[in-house]
Amino acid sequence: MTIKPKKPTAKPTAPRKDKPITLPDENRKVLPIAATNEDEARKRLAELYLLPNLYAARLVLAYNPKSSLDLVGVAAKMREHSQEVNGGDLSQAEAMLINQAQALQAIFTNFAERAYSQTGVVQIQTMLGLALKAQSQCRATLQTLVDVKYPRQATFIKQANIANQQQVNNGALSPGEPSREEKPIQSNELLEDQHGKRMDTGKTGAASGADPQLETVGAINRA
Question: At what angle do helices 71-86 and 91-116 cross, to 10 degrees?
Fold first, then answer.
């Protein structure tokens, strides 16, 4: 009878750390399209590339060339953000605006400090100009954030006519039409009610001889 030596038990190995998943560069911009023929595939591809979230995803990939992002994943996430905004959830937009304001504040501080270390007038003006532009953009971003979080309410004010004298213009006059302001006001008055004015109700009387200098002259024979 022979006794075989026992094999040494294997020591437990430490858990292996998974490596980060990276996609090949040629697959980062691939869009899977379900189509039965080439014409349908072209039409579907055109529809996808005209989507707003896909436009934004392409820019994200263009500004992050060394990242492991893929076009489909970024476009899908942006679509989720759009659906949240359509549902009334503006938390993502508010977070984006406050972060942009903080980044612009950092740009303003950087250029302002660099302007302080300059010695030439032109360099100081250039750095301060860039700093103030960043500061203005930061202020505008914060104002946009306030408008998004607390939208302004429309106010309706009724017009009150408190003028004692008011002029109303009813449009321009056509050529040849008399002016409405030049017509005199005709008064309806009785002459008998005014002193020194009487109504002439009789016929013309005969000439008298009291004043011969004012008698009627004869007819004038014209040439």
Answer: 110
Number of domains in the chain: 2
C-alpha closest to that of 114 among 100, 136, 134: 134
Between the alpha carbon of residue 185 and those of residues 142, 180, 188, the distances in Å are 63, 11, 10
Higher-confidence position of 31 and 100 = 100
DSSP labels for 125-192?
Answer: HHHHHHHHHHHHHHHHHHHHHHHHHSPPPP---------SS-----SPPPTTPPPSSSPPPPP---GG
Whether 81 and 109 share a structural domain: no
In this structure, which amino acid lies at residue 79?
A: R
Q: How confident is the model at residue 22 (pLDDT cuts 50, 70, 90)?
A: very low
Same-domain status, 115 and 135: yes
71 contacts 28 by C-beta, under 8 angstroms: yes
Alpha carbon 70 to its chain centroid, in Å, reads 34
142, two tokens: 């914060």
Residue owning tokens 């002193």: 195
Q: Which of 151-165, 189-203, 207-221 has the highest mean pLDDT?
A: 151-165
Question: What are the structure tokens assigned to 192, written together?
Answer: 């008998």
Q: Say which residues have a Cβ less than 8 Å from residue 203's Cβ, sequence separation at least 6.
A: none
Query: What CA–CA distance (Å, rounded) separates 78 from 61?
Result: 13
**SS3 for 82-110, per residue?**
HHHHHCCCCHHHHHHHHHHHHHHHHHHHH
Domain ranges, residue 113: 90-151
Retrieve residue 205's tokens.
């009387």
